[in-house]
Amino acid sequence: MKNDGDTGSLKVTETADGVIFTVHVQPRASRNEICGVQGDELRLRLTAPPVDDAANKLCIELLAKALGVAKSHLALTSGAKSRHKTIRAEGVSKNTVLSLVK
Question: What InterPro entries does the database record attribute to this sequence (predicted)?
Fold first, then answer.
């Protein structure tokens, strides 16, 4: 994991069954990686193009692997056609998400 964009602090909201956080996605990158924090969003680079929902699917896959949960525990709640996406993660603590940027 590369940490080149640490210019802010990741905003993570706890809910009754998990957490909600935002991500900034850069599609068509050379590799899949979590790059750190940009503003209050988790920054991701994805190899998938932003067509046919490919980048959204890869975003969920990358986050599920990094958080150690099943893909079914993550949901894209807003931003399906935007680089700025809101993710809901069930069964995940705030500290687990924050550990992705350390």
Answer: DUF167 (IPR003746), YggU-like_sf (IPR036591)
27 vs 93: CA distance, rounded Å: 27
Alpha helix (H) ranges present in the chain? 54-67, 94-98
Tokens of 68: 């150690």
pLDDT at residue 5 is higher than 50: no
Q: How many domains does the chain have?
A: 1
Looking from the CA of 19 toward its CB, the CA atoms found within 13 Å total: 16
Query: 68: which residues sit within 8 A by CB, 6+ positions away?
Result: 96
> What is the CATH number for 87?
3.30.1200.10
Kindly state the tokens that stand for 54. 């490919």
